[in-house]
Write a structure and sequence with these properties.
The structure is a single chain. This protein is mostly beta strands and 627 residues long. It contains 3 helices and 53 strands. The strands form 9 sheets. Strands 1, 4, 5, 6, 7, 8, 9, 10, 11, 12, 13 and 22 form a 12-stranded antiparallel beta sheet that branches. Strands 14, 15, 16, 19, 20, 21, 23, 24, 25, 26 and 27 form an 11-stranded mixed beta sheet that branches. The chain has a 7-stranded antiparallel beta sheet with strand order 47-48-51-50-49-52-53, with helices on one face.
Length: 627
Amino acid sequence: MAQKQSYPKGYYQFPIRPGLPNSLAGGLGDLRSNHFHAGLDIRTQQREGLPVYAAAEGYIYKVAVQRTGYGNVIYLRHPNGQTTVYGHLLKFSDPLATWVRQEQYKKQTFEIDLFPEAGQFVFKKGEVIALSGNTGGSAGPHLHFEVRDSKDNYLNPLYFGFNEIKDVTPPKFVNLAIRPMDINGRVNGQFDRRVYAPVKLKDGTWRLPEQVSATGIVGLDLIAFDQMTGTGFRYGLQCIEIKMDGQEVFSYNIEVFPNASTRDYNNLIDYETEQATGQRFLKCYVPDGNQFNLYKTNAINGKLNIADTLSHEVKVRISDSYENFSELIFNIKGEPQNPPLPVFNTEVNPEYVQTEIRENTLVVKAKYYRSQEPSATFYIKGKEERKAPNLYAGESAVFLTDLRKEMPDSVKIGTTTVKTFLRSQVMPGIVSSFKEAKWSVDFENTSLFDTLFLMGQRNFNALTINNRGTALNDYIHVALTPEKLPEDKSRTFMYRYLNGDYRFLGGKWDGDMIRFDTRELGTFVVQSDTVPPRVRLVEHSKHRIRGYVGDGMSGIANFKALVNGQWVLLNYDFKKGYIWSEKLDDTQPFEGELVLEVTDRAGNSTILQTELVDLVVKPKKTRKRKR
């Protein structure tokens, strides 16, 4: 695909070890948790403290210290209107470092966002602005580096011509999924997503290992990654292009994307599979509710329409920032639109009835035995509707219902009745509410990507809303009256239950009801936390204060250190739970009493009081050599 913008080569210099061969741990558009990666992760030889150079002349318009995210980060604005960003830094250079520390003392806070005056901190191209580190949400030492345009859109830094990065290795296919996109779609005769593992041939092209058949509207999801010469890391793709029978149906180019749209990522991947397995399939079609302008598509938004019984050739071409590419070629054989259902004398096993929602469709599966024809009775607002199976899948009879037309509240198959817990059809882009006797949900106009078929079930002190495989665009507001009220509401909050773990959400009590916000669906539980945080000092000398803090339930909210009543800056590495002091004046020793207070998010506090002491350095013992 042709690039849309021009990129002046040589305007920026590489910010780490310029002029020397470098390699990356991440690139623009990599699929990360809840977001596209916004720049380059430049490797720093698995260590901290490498000089970080200004990529071009400019002034610092923002500097921040964060416990997560980018950690210590600098935003450098340049005369061309663009901005470069340098994240996970160990230390800022002086005089910037001294000014930031003074502001932290002035505001008495570790985490801080600062906006210096335009001419306050000016750097020339190639000047050292910081040392590389591992702060914030970094999983290892590296420099996070971005280039943004004047509208704060992310640009691909590799297009600016850095000779320090070389790449002649093409991308690699991992998995291709083909899925029905509406109630009439089928893949290999089933209303199921089918996953294939492409195989690379000797000529360098890729093929699928088995025949694919389909009918109706289907979509492709893809796991593929870029490779770079000399590294074992996996990177995001720059371009994806799909053709069917020689006609382009879909193209994707992540050359530039807006800062405000990173949350759209959750709608652009198969979020349900990512939540269940960790695998990140990128949708190779434009999903409903998409606002992300990265696509060029056919009339049906990049989906494939298989409307006959012929064989159709599909080509998927993936490429990286250096125009290295790989191509997957396979055929989709059209199936009859309405294949005859097998005739079974069957009896449904009442022990096995499963329901789920896919593509605006309620899918009900029931295992059967051969004795009489299976059928299902759907109950819709007090009315009964008897249905025969739409298809068979192995030993299961499958019943499909278009939820845009009707929303069954329960289904009876054989002697088994299963509730769907379907409550309401919630439309995106409007403010709406749903209320039950003991719980409610309020939606903002930005809460949803697409239509949500709201499912809800209250069980004692827990509330389940749909499942964690449904992505939200923004917060929803939930209220729950638990079955059993806690003894101490001030220490009781909402937690999201996930894989045996409880993640703190917070909330506020309104009488016997707790209100909370969430950007993720699933199961929410009322839990009390009355255990104070853990605090362990490893040094409390006149030179420095060091230690570890942690909390087993709600997590650390804040901490404060006072020496003789004077506030002292404590830096915090949340990954290790490590805290350490940084003096305003390094020449002045700490004197007197230290009071350290650590508070968790449930409001429990641990207060440690101790006298500061001189650090005694014990001489190392030398072992006598045996003669």
